[in-house]
């Protein structure tokens, strides 16, 4: 019974994540979805800046704490281990939904590209960012990253093995292509509003801090293999510095 529940739980969490991910694309790109980064303009600049900062901070803190091995260890003293990743994915999605719901639009234009060719190029970069994010998840292990592999192995009574260190395709050029994709998608907009700029700056700062913390765990897990990788491959930009210590 628990095995069937785990499978259903994992599928539901994955569904919530995928819907949230699609909404995020529409939210950031001002596309299709009912509430976007620039809709629902706030009356108060100070209020909007504070609320938006708190929303990003809440998402960043949740993401950072729940991803740490120590937290996972504590959580799995009462939660079955195969459900841990799905729970992380579900809670992260809920924090993102909270951000969509609470976001205060600040539509004042900071810069705007009017030329059709320039707009086309920027939209192409926006699309490339999201495709890089999605591709990177598959290069690591998409189904493990979002908890489906864990619940499927549990449901079929097989033991879990941690995914191996990967250095394929995009991971040959940068150590954090998934984060590079997010940075590209967050900044590539033909019309940069104040609210969008605030989102892009805060998220980029969080990514820069987050990858440093993630690398501590990766070094603890993969040891000299990761240290050598860090020496040879730049963090976010293929033309960047080799080592981000
Ligand atoms: C959200 S993903 C982000 C991965 C990476 N920071 C990126 O931006 O492409 C986080 C997970 O990826 C795993 N990970 C990061 N780099 C990896 C690699 N080169 N091979 C395998 N797993 C990796 C981490 O252990 C963590 O569980």
TrEMBL record:
Domain NnrU as annotated: residue spans: 54-189
A Gene Ontology BP annotation from the UniProt entry: methylation
Coiled-coil intervals, chain numbering: none
Function, as annotated: Catalyzes the methylation of methanethiol (MeSH) to yield dimethylsulphide (DMS).
Taxonomy, superkingdom: Bacteria
Protein family (similarity comment): Belongs to the nurim family.
Protein's recorded name: methanethiol S-methyltransferase
Naturally occurring in which organism (per UniProt): Methylohalomonas lacus
């Amino acid at each position: 019974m628990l095995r069937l529940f785990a499978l259903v739980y994992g599928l539901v969490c994955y569904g919530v994540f995928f819907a949230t991910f699609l909404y995020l694309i529409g939210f950031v790109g001002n596309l299709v979805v009912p509430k976007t980064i620039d809709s629902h303009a706030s009356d108060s600049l100070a209020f909007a800046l504070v609320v938006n900062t708190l929303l990003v901070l809440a998402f960043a803190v949740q993401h950072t704490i729940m991803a740490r091995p120590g937290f996972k260890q504590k959580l799995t003293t009462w939660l079955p281990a195969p459900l841990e990743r799905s729970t992380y994915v579900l809670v992260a999605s809920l924090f993102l939904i909270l951000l969509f719901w609470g976001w205060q639009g600040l539509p004042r234009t900071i810069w705007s590209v009017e030329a059709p060719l320039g707009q086309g190029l920027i939209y192409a970069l926006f699309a490339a960012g999201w495709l890089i994010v999605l591709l990177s998840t598959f290069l690591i292990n998409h189904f493990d990253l979002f908890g489906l592999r864990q619940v499927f192995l549990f449901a079929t009574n097989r033991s879990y093995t941690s995914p191996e260190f990967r250095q394929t395709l995009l991971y040959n050029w940068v150590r954090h292509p998934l984060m590079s994709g997010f940075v590209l998608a967050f900044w590539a907009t033909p019309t940069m509003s104040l609210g969008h700029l605030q989102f892009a700056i805060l998220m980029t700062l969080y990514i820069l801090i987050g990858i440093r913390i993630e690398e501590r765990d990766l070094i603890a897990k993969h040891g000299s293999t990761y240290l050598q990788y860090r020496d040879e491959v730049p963090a976010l930009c293929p033309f960047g510095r080799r080592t981000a210590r």
